[in-house]
UniProtKB/TrEMBL annotation:
Binding-site list for substrate: 19, 99
Protein name: PHOP2 phosphatase
Similarity annotation: Belongs to the HAD-like hydrolase superfamily. PHOSPHO family.
Domain of life: Eukaryota
Cofactor annotation: Mg(2+)
Gene Ontology molecular-function annotations: metal ion binding; phosphatase activity
Residue positions binding Mg(2+): 8, 10, 179
Keywords linked to the UniProt accession: Hydrolase, Magnesium, Metal-binding
Keyword Hydrolase: yes
Gene this chain is encoded by: Phospho2
Catalytic residue list: 8 (nucleophile), 10 (proton donor)
Length: 241
């Protein structure tokens, strides 16, 4: 009996968007209008690339970025939840699938000593160049019309499950914890025995509700959460069964 926990990162594990939080490093804590208005839907990664160039041009170094990023608050109850998962790792495999980047997630998890809770992190690869600029790339290419062009979370989840099956690992249940519009695609992939846990009042919650109203509900069960303590309560019931 083993369960797979799939977490989004921004507004799920942390209570903010890591990509917009980094703007606190910018001069006067804001971006020039031209840069702010250069975002095109579905091309967030390219936009963040331009933000990182702007920060680099303004002499913002790695250590300052790191200091800023590690002040992001965790979502209510999340520290308790991750502690609980860490104590029960023999029952839970735990992955992150996020449109953030490897550098930000790594900094934040390591600073709070939660990196050991997660078996794998799937997110956009980032690194500092020889000139000290942060660079970010697309996670992968895909053919899903519903998702941003750099990341289809359903594809990530499916490939992870296939790889685990090859290793002889299958899961009693998948628990998907997220908040955003790009979490709907993987939630649609979940089966009847699985459970989606959308954050209350956020886009994923609204989209799942809309599907139910239009009589094309998701296959899996749905349990809304507002504090990660709600998620922990569910997981405690799960391992008692």
């Amino acid at each position: 009996m083993k369960f797979l926990l799939v977490f989004d990162f921004d507004h799920t594990i942390i209570d903010e968007n890591s990509d917009t939080w980094i703007v606190r490093c910018a001069p006067e804590r804001k971006l020039p209008n031209g840069l702010r208005n250069s975002y095109q839907p579905g091309h967030w990664t390219e936009y963040m690339g331009r933000v990182f160039v702007y920060l680099g041009d303004n002499g913002i170094k790695e250590d300052e970025m790191k200091r800023t990023m590690t002040t992001i608050p965790f979502t209510a109850g999340m520290v308790d939840l991750l502690g609980f998962i860490g104590e029960n790792k023999e029952l839970f495999d735990c992955i992150i699938v996020s449109d953030s980047n490897t550098v930000f997630i790594d900094w934040i998890l390591k600073a709070a000593d939660f990196h050991k809770v997660f078996d794998e992190v799937f997110t956009n690869p980032a690194a500092f160049s020889s000139t000290g600029y942060l660079t970010v790339q697309h996670f992968h290419a895909h053919h899903c019309a519903k998702c941003p062009k750099n990341l289809c979370k359903r594809k990530v989840l499916k490939e992870f499950l296939d790889k685990q099956l090859e290793r002889g690992v299958s899961y009693t249940q998948i628990v998907y914890i997220g908040d955003g519009g790009n979490d709907l695609c993987p939630v649609m992939f979940l089966k009847k025995n699985d459970i989606a846990m959308p954050r209350q009042g956020y886009t994923l919650d609204k989209k799942i509700s809309q599907l139910a109203q239009s009589l094309s509900p998701v296959q899996c069960s749905v349990l809304v959460w507002s504090s990660a303590i709600d998620i922990m309560s569910y997981l405690k019931l799960l391992i008692k069964e």
